[in-house]
Amino acid sequence: MFHKEFRAIIFQNVLILCASAVLWKQTTVTATQVTRPRGVSLARASLYSPDADFTCLDGSATFPFRYVNDDYCDCQDGSDEPGTSACPNGSFYCRNLGHEAMIVPSSRVNDGICDCCDAADEYQSGANCVNTCKELGSAAQEEAQRRYELESQGYAIKLEYINKGRQAKLSQQERNMALKAEQVEAEALRAEKEREKHEAEEPERQALDKYRQIEQEAVKEKEEIERSKQETEASKAFDWLDSNQDGKLQVEELQTHVAFDQNQDGTVTVDEAKFFLHNEEEMEKSDFIATGWPLIKPFVMKAQGLENPSQPDQQTGEIPLPDDHQQDESMPETEGEEEEDEEHEEEAEPVKPSPVTPNSVEYDAETQELIEAANKARNSYDEADRRLRDLEREIRQLEESNSKDYGPNEEYQPMDGQCYEYSDREYTYKLCPFDNGSQRPKHGGSETRLGSWDSWDGPAENKYGAMKYDKGVQCWNGPQRSLKVHLSCGMENQLLSVSEPNRCEYEMKFTTPAACGEPKKPDDGDSEIHDEL
Ligand code: MAN
Predict the structure, then answer these.
(1) Tens digits of per-residue pLDDT, 328-353?
(2) Ligand 1 mean position, distance from CA 450 (Å)
(3) How many angstroms does the Cα of residue 164 sit away from the middle of ligand 1?
(4) Distance between CA atoms of residues 113 and 453, nearest Å
(5) pTM for this structure?
(6) 3-state secondary structure at position 532
(7) Cβ atoms of residues 391 and 405 within 8 Å
(8) Substitution candidate for ligand 1 out of 448, 473, 508 with most atoms within 8 A of CB
(9) Which residues of 153-187 are buried (b: 16+ CB within 10 A; e: fewer)?
(10) Cα(91)–Cα(533) distance, rounded to whole angstroms?
């Protein structure tokens, strides 16, 4: 209490001594001629009425108005001392006429440091502050004007982008409608061509069926001839090997031929001979033809120095065997031997060339015509089918592009289909908006996809401020790579920088006119702060 009274006495004294000066220092007059205590903004002027008691702005106390700016802190929120440094938490407002108003902590008032450009915060410190608001104001003004002009140019380009984007969307929609109409036609045409194809293929099938039968018969005939050739050859070999002509092949008979000396020790043992008789003592001719000769023949041929035992005689398919088998150890000549036995050659039935073979079919004129008609119908159908597929593909692509969000006014559409690059020391980065982002080592190596277009990813109040690309190439021992692109207003589309704040998580800074807002004309630079409570 004593303190309060003491302070009041001091205050009154000061008031008496320098009544007019203090009054002047307590108030300041603004351009709008509103009287308010020092350090109070225009917006708060009405809360400081000299004709009434003052209530702290937090409502915590009320006292005579003369306590305001009396250099003694009465309010917890410091609101009674806006123009002195008495309260640690007060705030001092400098008008900074000619530049921008500013609020500084009132603890800085008269601390010897010039905070306000109009020097208002140092009215008693003797800091010799000079009012620099005019110079600062005009520099800021110039900068604001420069920014405004840039933004205006960027915005003008953005308007062009909007036009282009809308135009592209419209023509895509028109093209889509036209394609859809064409698709209906193309479907009908394909159905018609399919019907025609079936109609042409049916008579062709019937005609070819006849030929197929002939072909099959020819094949059968050929096989039959081949089989009989093999049989004849086997039969002759048997007769030659069956030296005692008893109609059976015995072990001893085979032992006389060195060709069966499998281990080549100079003797054909019983076991070696029996091997060819399926481990029996003897073999009937029918068994020899069926299974014995195929086993023996390679040995016979080997003895003759022939490589390919299955090669048939071109003409007869027979093995011309020597009349005198005593001359052995020359073996019976198998097919493929150069010298031909004249007798056998005469005996051999010439194989008639098959009229129709699977590889060289000659069709009669009528069938040929049916095939050509069916081919034509098939080609027409294929063409109609291809056209429909092409249309469907184009429609799909258009719809995919149409479903992309190119911004509130289609302003980002012109960036689709373009790519932009940026190089740092190690990599060249590429951004193809609405498609993907990638990274290529500068000194060789393949491109790594950092992500594919996913969605807009800006904050709630500016969704179009950033783009997300995800599902990039898997990081070694880590996640799939991903990329965030931050967009800001600029004169041109340009990739400004790339960073990798976390391993395999990339960030790009990209400027584009599409991100420019409507430019606001700079004011005269002399602005008040709207410091609402
Ligand atoms: C490559 C690049 C880098 C990445 C590593 C992760 O070197 O894609 O950006 O950090 O792989 O292993």
Answers:
(1) 444 556 654 444 444 444 343 433 33
(2) 10
(3) 38
(4) 53
(5) 0.57
(6) coil
(7) no
(8) 448
(9) ebbebbeebbeebeebeeebeeebeebeebbeebe
(10) 12
